[in-house]
């Protein structure tokens, strides 16, 4: 029976024990505590010293309350909480020679200073078993957060996956496709050689015009029914050439830059149509039209 009582006492004492922050490998006065909302953290602060708690970056303290406010100075700024034991003034009334006299005395920190501290923030609630230190003293306690680390790791992995996906899409969209038609003929107006492409072909979806570094990239127009209309384009890099990708295949295309004009006649237009219409330069990437933000 005696042994059973001792075992139960040990179990109960362990179940209600406060967590003491772990020592730093560099200095035992600097500590680390793994945050657990169901845990009480035992913190030692010494008279004449300030102990600081570092909470999570960006976390803001809403309130910090102790059970013995006269004996502890608790202040906070951003995600830091500063703790310092303090003496306080006590006033007592005594009777001397029939007169009541108010006497003041300074009460210095002692073993009776032990109390609790509750810190509430915009993210968490911290339960502190606040102890006056006579030997052991904590200068700084850094809280660490497993849930935050897991979340940050997950977010980093998701961001990395999205980044890799975007790189793949960009690579697929930026690469020139296999030519299906090289039957392009040019009519270069006088003094217009500077905007004449070095090569031209289409892949059944887009038209590709290659320019070396000596050339000027012109504006591109569709010539149809005796009228001109501007065409959408983008530029890709292919070796030493800047490739002007025209988002269409057409029978006649006109290139302009100032007074310079070049006409392109596509003799292979519609001779070798695709079995299936594509809307991008690659089968690996599909274009989806999103309307009304859906």
From TrEMBL:
<keyword id="KW-0732">Signal</keyword>
<dbReference type="InterPro" id="IPR038161">
    <property type="entry name" value="VirB9/CagX/TrbG_C_sf"/>
</dbReference>
<comment type="similarity">
    <text>Belongs to the TrbG/VirB9 family.</text>
</comment>
<dbReference type="InterPro" id="IPR010258">
    <property type="entry name" value="Conjugal_tfr_TrbG/VirB9/CagX"/>
</dbReference>
<dbReference type="InterPro" id="IPR033645">
    <property type="entry name" value="VirB9/CagX/TrbG_C"/>
</dbReference>
<feature type="signal peptide">
    <location>
        <begin position="1"/>
        <end position="18"/>
    </location>
</feature>
<dbReference type="Pfam" id="PF03524">
    <property type="entry name" value="CagX"/>
</dbReference>
<protein>
    <submittedName>
        <fullName>P-type conjugative transfer protein VirB9</fullName>
    </submittedName>
</protein>
């Amino acid at each position: 029976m005696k042994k059973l009582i001792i075992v139960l006492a040990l179990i109960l004492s362990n179940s209600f024990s406060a967590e003491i922050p772990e020592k730093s490998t560099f200095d035992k006065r600097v500590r680390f505590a793994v945050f657990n909302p169901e845990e009480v953290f035992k913190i030692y602060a010494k008279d004449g010293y300030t102990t600081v708690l570092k909470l999570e970056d960006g976390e803001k303290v809403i309130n910090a309350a102790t059970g013995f406010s006269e004996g502890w100075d608790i202040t906070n700024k951003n995600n830091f909480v500063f703790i310092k034991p303090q003496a306080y003034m006590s006033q007592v009334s005594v009777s001397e020679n029939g007169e009541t006299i108010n006497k003041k005395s300074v009460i210095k920190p002692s073993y009776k200073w032990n109390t609790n501290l509750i810190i509430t923030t915009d993210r968490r609630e911290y339960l502190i078993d606040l102890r006056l230190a006579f030997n052991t003293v904590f200068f700084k306690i850094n809280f660490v957060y497993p849930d935050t680390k897991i979340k940050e790791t997950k977010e980093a992995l998701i961001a990395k996956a999205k980044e890799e996906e975007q790189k793949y899409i960009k690579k697929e969209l930026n690469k020139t496709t296999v030519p299906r038609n090289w039957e392009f003929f040019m009519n270069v107006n006088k003094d217009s050689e500077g905007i004449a492409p070095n090569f031209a072909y289409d892949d059944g979806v887009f038209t590709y015009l290659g320019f070396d570094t000596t050339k000027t990239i012109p504006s591109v127009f569709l010539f149809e029914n005796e009228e001109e209309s501007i065409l959408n384009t983008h530029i890709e890099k292919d070796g030493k050439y800047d490739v002007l990708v025209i988002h269409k295949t057409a029978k006649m295309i006109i290139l302009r830059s100032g007074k310079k004009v070049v006409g392109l006649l596509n003799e292979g237009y519609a001779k070798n149509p695709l079995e299936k219409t594509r809307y991008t330069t690659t089968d690996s990437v599909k274009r989806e039209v999103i309307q009304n933000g859906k």
